[in-house]
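Run Flagellar assembly protein T C-terminal domain-containing protein through structure prediction, thanks.
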Amino acid sequence: MRQRHRGNTLRLGVILGLLATLLFCGCGAWKSIKQWAGYGVADDVDEPKVPPEAVQEEVVIDGKTWVRSKNPYWLTYPDQPEYIYVEKGREFVGLQGHLLRSLRKKLGLEEGKAKGVPEDRVQELVRKEVERLLREQGIGALYAREKGAPVVGRYVAVLPNPEGPPGLQAANRTLAAAVADQLSRQKDIKVAGPEKVKGSLTAAKITGSLKHSQNLKDLGDALGVQAVVLTDVVPPAKGAPGFLVLEVFDTFLGTKADGIAAPVEGSPTSEAIQRFARDNALRAAVALLNVDWFGRVEFVKEGKVYLSLGQNAGLKVGDRLKVVTPGQEVINPETRASLGFTADQPKGELKVVELLGQTGAVAQVVSGGPFKANDKVKAAR
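Sure, done. The structure for Flagellar assembly protein T C-terminal domain-containing protein is below.
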């Protein structure tokens, strides 16, 4: 009994000693205790050097306007920054904002049409519409359905933009490698190896800007990928900071799917590059998975159609595929603005009968044809 009492007294003394240490030494002692106990302490996180209101709301990168936008993954994914820079028109709008906007439009209460309607009346109409949707269609009715095809996987390539400043190409190669590494850790995304990317870039014989629509499609055909991620390191200019940039392009139509930029002070360090890749991998992965799934015909032999995608893009035996000719972009002849793309033209249907490891598959013709190399295939819905 005496030993137990002595043990309790000793424990109480230790606790009081720790409290006294914290009281007299402040938070520094608490940080030391946390480190001693094995809890990570973010010592490497720098204090903001400028107040938030001093951060530029808009910057110009490569001749385009990028805006400071709320990061959709802040507070829901570890180590995410609160704000990121995205190309103007792609700013983050939360679920509530999307819902209010879509319901206002459906109810004829868009801005300019709701004049004279009190705001509380608008909110009441929206609330009733939400209740109706939940009652009739369930919670799925409130979320945008992913436009991707039933095949889940995506096969992508990551490469540094060769048009960047020569003095920053080494940093850009490091950035591309870091982004590729982070994306390769994401479920359902396979990243083409650097040697394959380098060889295909040479074989494609691309001239002009890599971001040109036809060049993106040609590079996609050479690599056999569904999307390309281009990285860039933009130097400081005219008082603006430098930027680390990644852009996601689909290779079916050669269009841009998303873009992310983050300011960096001075020359980008390895730590800053790794942090940017880590912080933005999830958003880039979502953009890649939202790119329409498609594959390519590699060649046709003895009545069988060989495809350049397999398990690396989520393909399975029994999958039905439609062979299509991609739609054409419609350009306003006066303003030169793009109005969108016409619908894909069907050429026939295939059924996957065998997988050739990770990067190939064999299909039999169900209808249509004849088919040739680089014909595009999509999942039949």
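Residues 22-27, 29-54, 138-149 have pLDDT under 50 and may be disordered.
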